[in-house]
Design brief:
By secondary structure, the chain is mainly α. It contains 10 helices and 6 strands, in the order ααββαββααβαβαααα. 16% of the residues are buried.
Length: 198
Amino acid sequence: ADLAYMQQLQSNTYEENIADSSALKNLFYTIYTSSKVVIAQVEGHAIAGGCGLVSVCDIVFAIPEAKFGYTEVKIGFIPALVACFLLHKLGEGRTKELLLSGELINAETASRYGLINFVIEKQAIRESVRKYAENLIHNTSAQSISLTKALLNTVQNLSLENSLEEAVKLNATVRSTEDCKRGIAAFLNKKKLDWSDF
């Protein structure tokens, strides 16, 4: 944490703190709603704001030694922005456990909770992240990834009935896209597409 920055926050006006919190909200929201897959590579501790960044990424790799936690309650603060995202990611029970206690968890526990996806040894993490990203680039449609992320962000706030209606509409729309036509043609002709060519 930037200690000078934290000290300055205490003397900010309410309006300055609203502006500062809004900037952080915009950062988290931009990452969370990006049309691209956002991958975090955690090679140290991700605590408070750092864990907030982990919370909004799509895929998270971490070394076994990494610790994760939202320690805001231990200094009289609250993880307000993170709570909004974490409820979607982990559900109410785990979110309360992590945010109310302020306790740190290790990478294995974070993986079991669904906060992170992969625990990889330090010497292999960089290569693992690179391979994962390259696999996405070559084997998945960027358009399909973007639309799937948008769908997931939309339907989780809807009732089951309304989310299914949204899914029906998007399904129908996607069937007429070039990526879908290209992908189905390759599948039917038993050809492997390299999506990085498109």
